[in-house]
Write a structure and sequence with these properties.
Elements lengths: L18 H7 L1 H4 L4 H14 L3 H29 L6 H4 L3 H6 L25 H24 L4 H26 L20 E3 L24 E3 L11 H12 L9 H4 L3
The structure holds manganese (II) ion (2 copies).
Length: 267
Amino acid sequence: MYHHVKKLMYTVHVDHADPSFGNMLLEQFGGANGELAAALQYSIQGLNCEDLDRKDMLMDIGTEELSHLEIIGTLARMHLKPMKTSRRAAESDPLIAIAGGGGVSLNNSMGNPWTADYLKITGELDVDLRSNIAAEARAKIVYERLINFCDDAGTKDALQFLMTREITHLKAFTAALDSMGKDPFTIGNIPPTPGVVDQYFNDSTGQGDQGEIDVRGPWNEGSGIRYVEAPMKMEAQVTQEEVSREIKRATGKAPEPTAPRSKRFRR
Ligand code: MN
Ligand code: MN
């Protein structure tokens, strides 16, 4: 059940309306990392969630994001308002001025319509929580850029609140994922192929004009990782023989024989 209270979650005050900035604010209204996308992503994940503890969290945060949508919409509308009467202001976004009457609509800052494609909902709770952590990080950095381009104190204040809440959510999703007690590299139920899972392919080679070189780091060395000079030696194509060799190397025993191709793919 949804209930609306005639108060904003955070008071919004704009000293100087700036239609161009109002247009930028729409990125967080109808954009890919905006408040509507967040609200619906978490709420719909919540509808699908059978873990009642984390379902409660998804519905709490999803609902808070709707309150953020109301704040950013109010803020954007205040900045866009001069478009209703001023030709000069209208020129900063003819779509909003002419088609939308100077009000907010569900478009991003470039006028592209909001789409459900923005939502990441897999129905696998730990996978969804990872998407949410990334979504909060993206929302945070978009707010930070808006703050950096903003010269209105009242607007900055509201954006600082919205940006802060994204970090609060990022912490909550991270804690919820950690508390599931899952191995961070175990996704779903089917285990990855041993051996192959630890191969790192050096697929970008040589030295670049900007000084780019082949770098070794924790992502391609240590803890069982096998560095493969793939392209130079044409080892990039992984054959079934190679997979069998890797399984034997990693586990010390030969893999279960797989059914012949013709049998496996017979209709
Ligand atoms: Mn938000
Ligand atoms: Mn958030």
